[in-house]
Design brief:
Its main location: Golgi. It holds the Pfam family Gal-3-0_sulfotr. By secondary structure, the protein is mainly alpha-helical. It contains 19 helices and 4 strands.
């Protein structure tokens, strides 16, 4: 039901922006392909961004690149962290940080590539709702109740933060400057702004296809894009630590009303998703057989990888002993790449990247 609703609205939502889709679809890699070293990735919460951050961390470590890291014991990069590093060499920002065009352009080199991530908003809402455990708080509605009438519950900041949650990571709050979320033109203007400033917005719901396209944008290799899903890891870690007792709020059975309501309630998020999902597939079309061959090869590589590299008790428990083993593992070890793929971004940054950069 969810997928069919999305398909029916895609053309209508994107048709009015055709003059901008052409610009996005026809974005090309430079004539001489040089591997990208300077990169900003907007890691939107609950969009599968940890999987991507791990890809960028592994590439950066292998190529001795410098990361802007969150302060110790935190997981997000704040505005003051960016300000403190202006004038210092930074190659990559890949952990949670709200996009700030002015500050990031002051910090990063001129040839920096900007990458984003977006997810179908109802799937994102469910993931975020369960992550925050909102439906398990007696004073809060269940996910189904919220979807059936979101406006009824926006009297608290906690619930209001669900409105256009993904777009907030792209600077929506500063963009609207207090304007109401009712202006369709405002949505189009915001999406156009992001489309101009970002080289590629990946779609969580089509991760493999997104990564093959990203490979071309970054001029990296398919091997650089290999991954083990950290979404699966996060769920398994929760189950491992709670004995499988984690509660989950489900969508309302009336998905038609949920889609209708959330398209009004999170108008900008849906505008973002519709536009960048559409342009992702249009960009893929322009690549023809070359893309299909790359995707087939990528899927073969992933199948082989996942047959030998997967989460076990020690990689889920993340004990100090296990982390120490991974940190000091020799690059010639057969498990070296796998162990780094399994390491969550927070631990990767704290235990591997930070000590190297501090030396």
């Amino acid at each position: 039901m969810l997928g069919s609703n999305m398909a029916q609205t895609k053309y209508n939502a994107t048709g009015k922006w055709t003059q901008n889709t052409e610009d996005v679809i026809n974005k090309k890699v430079g004539a001489i392909c040089q591997p990208v070293r300077n990169l900003v990735f907007v890691k939107v919460a609950k969009c599968g961004g940890s999987t991507l951050t791990n890809i960028f961390q592994r590439y950066g470590e292998a190529h001795n690149l410098t990361f802007l890291l969150p302060k110790p014991n935190t997981s997000s990069i704040k505005q003051e962290d960016i300000l403190e590093h202006i004038g210092k060499p930074v190659n990559m920002i890949v952990q949670h940080a709200q996009y700030n065009e002015e500050l990031m352009k002051k910090l990063m080199p001129n040839d920096t590539v900007y990458i984003g991530l977006i997810r179908e908003p109802l799937r994102h809402l469910k993931s975020l709702y369960n992550y925050k455990k909102l439906g398990n708080i007696p004073s809060m509605p269940t996910l189904a109740e919220f979807e059936e009438n979101p406006w009824k519950y926006t009297h608290t900041n906690r619930m209001k933060s669900l409105m256009n949650n993904q777009s907030r990571w792209y600077g929506l709050k500063n963009f609207i400057k207090g304007k109401l979320n009712k202006d369709v033109n405002l949505t189009a203007k915001f999406v156009e702004k992001i489309a101009k400033q970002f080289d590629l917005i990946l779609v969580t719901d089509h991760m493999k296809e997104s990564l093959v396209l990203l490979k071309d944008v970054l001029c990296w290799t398919l091997d650089d894009m290999l991954f083990v899903s950290h979404k699966v890891a996060n769920e398994n870690i929760v189950n491992f630590n709670t004995g499988g007792l984690q509660e989950s709020n489900e969508h309302t059975p009336n998905m038609d009303i949920a889609v209708k309501n959330m398209r009004r309630y999170s108008r900008v998020d849906y505008g973002m998703f519709d536009f960048f999902n559409y342009t992702l597939w249009e960009r893929i079309k322009t690549k023809g057989d070359a893309f299909r061959n790359d995707l087939r090869q990528f899927e073969d590589k992933l199948r082989f990888l996942h047959s030998t590299c997967y989460y076990a008790k020690e990689s889920l428990a993340l004990s100090e002993e296990y982390i120490e083993k991974v940190v000091h593992e020799d690059t010639s070890s057969a498990d070296y790449k796998c162990h780094r793929m399994l390491l969550p971004p927070t631990q990767y940054g704290h235990y591997i990247i930070r000590p190297k950069q501090d030396n």
